[in-house]
Amino acid sequence: MGLLMSGIAVVQTAMVRGMEALPIRVEVSMSAGLPGIVIVGRPDPAIAESRSRVRCALKSAGFKMPRESVTVNLSPAEIPKMGTSFDLPIALAILAASGQIPTDGFENALIVGELSLDGRLRTPRGLVACAALAVQTNKTLICPKSTLFDAIGNIHGRFVSSLDEFRNPLSFVGEDIECVCIDNSLPPSVHGFSDVAGQSLAKRALAIGASARLGVLMIGPPGIGKTLLASCIPSLLPPLNDKELYETALLHSLVGDDVDSIVSRIRPFRAPHHSTSMAGLIGGGKPVRPGEISLAHNGVLFLDEMGEFASKTLQALRQPLEEKAVRITRIEGTYEFPCNFELVAASNPCPCGKLGDPNGTCTCTEAAIASYRTRLVGPLIDRVHMVIRLERPSVAEIMAGAKPNETFEWRQKVCDAVAFMKEREDLQKRNEVSEGAMRSSMVYILQKLAFYPKAMNLIEKMIENGNVSVRGAYALVKVARAVADFEQSAEVSEDHVLEAVNYRDAQVIS
């Protein structure tokens, strides 16, 4: 099937809906009448505005705008069309219909791109999803150059930079898409524990939490380094594997984010402001786009000043945290985005931030402190496994600074713990299949997680004495197992449980 059929020029393109790209046909027909471009097929305002961009781009590239009535149909017509990726396909279809460019190979090509007024091309949103569609449909992808393709691999296509290049046959347009070898070393812009003086206990707790993806809350006075410590977590985590790299790059391409660090396999770190709306955090809008929790997928979501976030916004996080996915329902359908992230939060101990600080005097009333703590122990607290109390480092620690190689030492410990935990869980799953038993009693869970008898007795006494609730007991078990994995211990000892108890703040979590 050629590009020209009965006077109609056809170019294959794609439109992003949610996390997938849908195939779209751009059909152009010219007829006698007043010169102009009419676009049909339920275009949104961005596509309607492409008429002006296409007209100026054609002139800048040295082509002629046909002095006829041009009708552009986006098929299938029942699907609402959105985005700016239709600019280049519309321009090429007009040029093909008017006989100004060769059309060989267009029937086997998937073409996307946004046009500038001077004819140069810009990268549209959702390019990774379009590349996946090209692979599925066995088509050649024609698009602007982007580092996103280093996250995909095995893409057959060509990079183009301007409309003028299409004077040549398609096989000679632009340059072949080539994926480069990715360097897994940490770039200098990524913070690490080597940037933080002191706070050895907090560093250990954050490393344990990172290795097991546990929810962590840091409490301490302002200026103590809570935000900096949180931003160090991606430097501790193992690099993104191929599947995670594709998922993460796809999500970030949907919102047009820079993906250089992701292509380097550095896990994402998202720190939304406490004034972020529910749609901004969870996802939504028109067109529907992923929120901060999905952009933190395979990485870290950091809620600085957690108590300042709107209660309804935090409440909306509970289900996504449990299901590792968020579903957004609109009249045209349901959109689903993954959101498997580690939750890290920070808070001052009181509104003024000086409660318990030896270098300052708290000026808050008891009522203000109680009100602030009530907001802090709100709807997300049952998802927080560890609470870390931070204190100001001593002058000696500040002057001494951190060890230059401290980041890599902690990263190695976390990577070793992750590998140990995966091996243990794989063995555990094989044993469960062979046993044919999946019981949920606390005794069975402790036995399955290899708790020593003394460790089991310690947890039992804490439950009997009312020191920990049932929900808190399960969280305590999870933290103790993470401590044991961090130490690469097959069994959970009494010491591991006691360390886990230190991370369970009775004033904040039960």
Number of strands: 20
What is the total domain count?
3
The main sheet comes to: 5 strands, mixed
Helical stretch tally: 20
Mean pLDDT: 87
The CATH topology label of the largest domain is Rossmann fold
β-strand amount: 15-25%
Q: What would you call the shape?
A: elongated
Low-confidence stretches: none
Task: Give the name of the CATH architecture of the largest domain.
Answer: 3-Layer(aba) Sandwich
CATH class of the largest domain: Alpha Beta
- Sheet with most strands: strand arrangement: 1-2-3-5-4
Distance between the termini: 68 Å
CATH superfamily label of the largest domain: P-loop containing nucleotide triphosphate hydrolases
- Alpha carbon gyration radius: 28 Å
Question: Percentage of helical residues?
Answer: 25-40%
Notable traits:
single chain; 510 residues; alpha/beta; Ribosomal Protein S5, domain 2; Rossmann fold; Helicase, Ruva Protein, domain 3; five-stranded parallel sheet
Summarize the SSE layout with pairings.
Layout: E1 4-5, E2 8-17, E3 20-31, E4 36-40, H1 45-48, H2 50-60, E5 69-75, H3 87-97, E6 109-111, E7 114-115, E8 121-122, H4 127-136, E9 140-144, E10 157-160, E11 175-176, H5 200-212, E12 216-219, H6 226-231, H7 233-236, H8 242-254, H9 260-263, E13 269-270, H10 278-282, E14 283-284, E15 289-290, H11 292-295, E16 300-303, H12 311-315, H13 318-323, E17 325-330, E18 333-338, E19 342-347, H14 366-376, E20 386-389, H15 395-400, H16 406-435, H17 442-448, H18 453-464, H19 470-486, H20 494-502
Parallel strand pairs: 4-5, 6-9, 9-10, 12-19, 12-20, 13-16, 16-19
Antiparallel strand pairs: 1-2, 2-3, 3-5, 7-8, 10-11, 14-15, 17-18
Helix pairs in contact: 2-3, 5-16, 5-19, 18-20, 19-20
